[in-house]
Specification:
Elements (H helix, E strand, L loop, with lengths): L11 E4 L5 E4 L22 E2 L3 H4 L6 E2 L2 E2 L7 E2 L15 E3 L8 E8 L11 E11 L4 E2 L11 E2 L21 E10 L11 H8 L3 E11 L4 H7 L3 E3 L2 E4 L1 E2 L6 E7 L22 E3 L26 E6 L9 E7 L17 H4 L4 E5 L4 H5 L3 H7 L7 H16 L5 E11 L1 H11 L9 E5 L18 E2 H14 L5 H6 L2 H4 L24 E2 L8 H7 L6 E7 L11 H6 L15 H12 L3 H7 L5 H27 L7 E6 L19 H5 L11 H20 L19 E5 L4 E4 L3 H12 L5
Parallel strand pairs: 4-13, 6-13, 15-18, 20-21, 20-22, 22-23, 23-26, 24-25, 26-27, 27-28
Antiparallel strand pairs: 1-2, 3-9, 5-7, 7-10, 8-9, 8-12, 9-11, 12-13, 14-15, 16-17, 17-19, 19-21, 28-29
Length: 752
């Protein structure tokens, strides 16, 4: 007998009697193992061998969404809610039960750990039954049962109020808060014992749900993980505890040798070994880049090829958790894996081993010259940043098991240029077999979409890259490769944030000068030729766009943009907020199809022009990614999902930038606690849902799981996309007339 739980659970491993390992992943409960921890254990006051959600399954498997205001799903419960703190009930809410619900039962049970093999039973911390059908919330700090409800047995006695977790070791224990919708009201005596409660509930559960939180004995959890060095291929390292001491963080681990001197503009070399225990307690320096904004003010150095790991797995535990490797954006000119938005603690709490990395950017990451191509042995140059990504993925294959990660279950993800990197790596034979899924946050585009030419997913031909690289070297007074390698990096990067003016995009948008190269080696073919030949790596994929990017802005920003007297930064997507701007942009981009465009997006006032600018930019994003899916899908049957992000962060950017480029990142990582903004309860709920989707993608390649709104797979027959953010539901791409127009326009453009 199996039963699906009410929402996705983080991976946790519990050893029961006889050494049996139980992996709770939210997919199913097994009657043979996970539902009965010890076949010989008897139900006693405060303990039971089964989780109740498995013992009394819902008749139709319906799911309730269960949440707490005190902690997100699959995270640590606050100390105040444990018996080491104030034993304060954390509060609970759940979705309304199905028709016919007459009462609810709430039960919290804790799971044993390997350190307690003699007690292979759950501990019971709350039993509350006969909650009225109209009740879907229990307040924080609850001490008295709501009117009509009755307390049942727990570890404090036969009819006791909430008894918080009281773990006896530093292991991280799972606590399941289960809610059941019943079609009856139980008799008063039905809850006098846990066995009687189970018997009375059997056959009467209409729906159920499960919220999982974790607890460990305070102060000891961090010591358990950080006090034991772990071995990687180059030596021993020790980490530090995260904000949550159940998470260990290892920062600044070298995955390649410093690319300095003769190693500048070469494929990354093997990392250097060290003696003793290396303290992995600080992020490595950012790779050299102009300005300090994208480097977040961090020190910069060519000795920058390091990565960072977040994990909840105990050292040498033998666990095999799925792995998420994140590649930052920044137009291939800047960025760092140490940005707080990329903090991996939230996903680590959901059973993921998270890796962020630094890679070479700008001129040091993407310079191409004929001399470099000859030297390479492949007749290729200009993709050193992508080669860094590949070296980091190879390091993960060799070393991630030491952190409890599974090298066979690696997903790569990135945003903007990071999303471009995910796309390029999916096209690279050098990355084949290094990952099984990819997440591209912004700019997976149809190759005939002109926007593709200037966004961070743009590419250069080898000939063009070598020509511009030779010119750049001459502008810096270097005529040989030796001279370039002797030049201080501070001098070399001056002027490296330039745009590439030679790319015709149909607008003022231009790509960065230094960006990936279709070199015949790292990237053998263009997007179009790769997809037509079906030569991309066969991986599951998720791709999406944001509401207020690629020329679209929030409606609350129109007046600010009209009042602006300075031109937008060179190469940036253009936003038309006046009729004159809109008309000129349309005529320039669409040429003979301009009148057809204006019939679909008419504007006779500045206000209408700004609104139609937004509508057309957003339609283009959604339609372009959907059509990209038709090419991707031709030779790849693995899961494919697309999204459209719509939620604006709180704080100073809410009205001026809205759901801006990259605004989804802290929600997907559930890293809100690492980012200083006035987050609301709604933001935290969105982050919990988003990060649960992302955790599921990493675990299975599919975002869907119990308790989450259904995210339909991409379909050529259904022109829709999953909205994420303000709502979680499918939405249409655009009207059929508008989809037809964009198809006709794309057909007139040269594929990229």
């Amino acid at each position: 007998m199996t039963m699906k739980t009410g929402r996705a659970l983080a991976h946790c491993t519990v050893l029961a009697a006889g050494g049996f390992a139980l992996a709770v992943s939210g997919v199913a409960w097994s009657q043979d193992a996970s539902t009965r921890l010890s076949p010989d254990a008897a139900s006693t006051i405060g303990h039971d061998p089964q989780l109740l959600i498995a013992a009394v399954p819902a008749r139709v498997g319906a799911a309730l969404k269960v949440t707490s205001p005190a902690f997100p799903a699959d995270a640590n419960m606050p100390l105040i809610s444990t018996q080491y703190g104030e034993n304060r009930f954390p509060g609970l809410s759940w979705s309304k039960g199905p028709q016919g619900t007459r009462s609810y039962v709430v039960v919290m049970q804790g799971m044993p750990a390997e350190s307690d093999p003699g007690r292979a039973v759950t501990s019971i911390h709350l039993v509350l039954y006969n909650l009225p059908a109209g009740t879907t919330t229990l307040s924080e700090g609850m001490t008295q049962a709501p009117a009509g409800a009755v307390y049942g047995p727990n570890v404090h006695g036969p009819a006791a109020a909430y008894a918080g977790p009281h773990t006896h070791d530093a292991n991280r224990h799972a606590y399941h808060t289960q809610v059941f919708a019943l079609d009856i009201v139980l008799a008063h005596g039905d809850g006098q014992s846990f066995s009687a409660l189970k018997a009375a509930m059997t056959g009467h559960v209409l729906a159920s749900g499960d919220l999982v939180g974790y607890a460990a004995k305070p102060a000891m959890a961090a010591a358990q993980t950080t006090g034991k060095p772990i071995r990687v291929e180059t030596g021993l390292i020790s980490g530090i505890p995260g904000r949550d001491p159940s998470i260990s963080v290892y920062k600044g681990i070298p995955y390649a040798a410093p690319p300095v001197g003769p190693l500048r503009w070469r494929a990354p070399a093997a990392p250097l070994a060290w003696q003793g225990v290396r303290k992995a307690d600080a992020f490595g320096p950012a790779c050299p880049q102009p300005g300090g904004d994208m480097a977040r003010g961090m020190a910069q150095s060519e000795d920058c090829l390091t990565l960072n790991v977040w994990t909840a797995a105990a050292p040498s535990s033998g666990e095999k958790r799925p792995v998420y490797v994140w590649i930052y954006g920044g137009g291939f000119i800047g960025g760092t894996g140490a940005s707080p938005e990329f903090d991996g603690e939230g996903l680590a709490k959901k059973g993921i081993v998270v890796v962020t990395l630094n890679y070479r950017v700008g001129v040091l990451g993407f310079l191409s010259t004929p001399e470099l191509s000859r030297e390479s042995g492949h007749g290729a140059s200009g993709n050193y940043g992508l080669l860094d990504d590949i070296a980091a993925l190879q390091w993960v294959q060799r070393n991630i098991a030491a952190f409890g990660g599974d090298p066979a279950k690696v997903t790569i993800g990135g945003q903007s240029a990071g999303a471009g990197s995910v796309g390029f790596l999916s096209m690279s034979p050098l990355a084949k077999g290094l990952f099984r899924a990819g997440i591209a946050e912004s700019h997976a585009r149809y190759p005939r979409d002109t926007e593709l030419r200037y966004l961070s997913v743009s590419w250069r031909s080898l000939a063009s890259a070598e020509k511009s690289g030779t010119q750049y070297a001459a502008q810096h007074g270097a005529s040989t490769l030796a001279a370039l390698r002797q030049m201080p990096w501070q001098q070399l990067i001056e002027g490296s944030s330039a745009i590439d003016p030679d790319v015709e995009t149909g607008s003022d948008g231009k790509p960065p000068l230094f960006r990936p190269v279709v070199d015949g080696w790292v990237i053998p073919k263009s997007y179009w030729d790769t997809y037509q030949s079906g030569s991309q790596n066969k991986v599951a994929y998720v791709a999406g766009n944001n509401k207020d990017e690629t020329g679209a802005v929030p409606e609350t920003a129109f007046a600010v943009l009209r009042a602006r007297t300075t031109p937008p930064r060179a190469g940036m997507p253009q936003t038309s907020v006046t009729v004159a701007q809109f008309q000129a942009a349309v005529r320039r981009k669409f040429g003979p199809l301009a009148d057809d465009f204006l019939k679909l997006y008419p504007a006779s006032t500045d206000a209408e022009a700004a609104l139609q600018n937004n509508a057309s930019a957003r339609d283009n994003s959604r339609i372009s990614t959907w059509l990209w899916g038709t090419l991707w899908r031709q030779t790849n049957s693995l899961p494919l999902h697309t999204y459209f992000w719509t939620h604006a962060q709180p704080g100073p950017t809410h009205d001026t930038r809205g759901a801006f480029h990259g605004s989804e990142i802290p929600y997907a990582f559930n890293s809100l606690d690492a980012v200083d903004l006035p987050w609301t309860r709604e933001d935290r709920q969105i982050a919990d849902t988003m990060s649960s989707y992302w955790a599921n993608i990493v675990k299975t390649g599919n975002p869907n799981g119990p308790g989450l709104p259904q995210w339909p797979a991409w379909s050529a027959q259904l022109p829709q996309v999953m909205e994420l953010g303000d709502h979680f539901a499918p939405m249409p791409l655009a009207s059929l007339e508008k989809i037809d127009f964009w198809k006709r326009f794309y057909a007139t453009q040269t594929p990229w």
